[in-house]
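Discussion board: Methods & Data

I've been asked by a reviewer to show the raw model output for two of the constructs in my manuscript, not just the figures. I'm not sure how much to include, so I'm pasting the format here to get opinions. Each protein appears as its amino acid sequence followed by a line of discrete structure tokens. Is this the kind of thing reviewers expect to see in a supplement, or should I convert it first? Here is construct A:
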Amino acid sequence: MAIGQDVGLPGLRPHRLRHTYATRLRQGGADAAQVQALLSHTYLETAARYLRAGPAEQAAVVERYAALVEQMQAETTAILALADELAKGTIETVLAKSDLELGIEALRGGQL
């Protein structure tokens, strides 16, 4: 069924239009389930044929994840720095005191 020949566009077929529609839906932000519903597919696997990501979409995903990785690295660094500060202010301080000093401090409400 080459309807494209009738309008001067050889090779144009209904399936290609359907594929373009699904691709545009996906590029517009529709998720796989939405594409499945709009194409009236029973199975998600059938709709998945239309969900190939193009180079621009792939680059956007890589950029998004790279930004997340940078954010996670910064947060991890901050958490580790805080853990170091806590270790210096608690464990090492407590271990440096004698049992008598700790007991007196506890009786005085945390002041030595």
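Construct B, same format:
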Amino acid sequence: MNLITTDVPCPGCKALLTSFDGLSGACGECGHQLDDETGTVLLAAVLAETVSDVYPNADSGGKPAKVCRTCRRALERKVEAGTGAESWHHHNQDIMSGHKPIPVDADKVDMLGRCDFCNSDLGEEVWVLPCRDFIAGINPLTGQNQGYAGDWAACGTCAPLVDKNQWNALLRRVQKGWEDDHGIPAPEEKVTAWRVLYRLLRKNIKGAIYLSE
């Protein structure tokens, strides 16, 4: 799964969709309705031109674009809008690793991957959930527009919950994992953001979850 965080221009008023509502699909400035086809076009534009942050956790083969040669974790790709300058950085959960990232192609090292749901280490058992690209709208915690591209990776505990359509149980697991890591209750805004995200994800699943070889 690739997480794209960016500002996208509205095809109606051309203003940046900083107030885009991912649920109603309307521009907050002019009210222009963005249908599924328009959303797909916008996401393609994001991927091609206006990406500011991309978190490449897993593509259709469960592999990221780049990993760090030192810690073998997937790296975050940043592309400067306008210049196209590309750089690679550790994710937030790896930022205290104590070393600078050394980007290498994913197939050059034995990657230490994470579940796209609970963020736990994947280990040997990696499940892949086939998904269409989709735009999720504004992240209430960052104020930025977000889109997701590619398939999602799941651990051996989250995968059965997805397979059995037990999304409430999955949300509780994700929330508990976050709270265990941070030592505080998850903010209600974050729980709501997860709930909205999984609702959108369910609409864009294009196949049964399967165990990656």
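Answer (T.O., handling editor elsewhere):
This is acceptable in a supplement if you add a one-line summary per construct. For B, something like: The longest strand covers residues 2-6.
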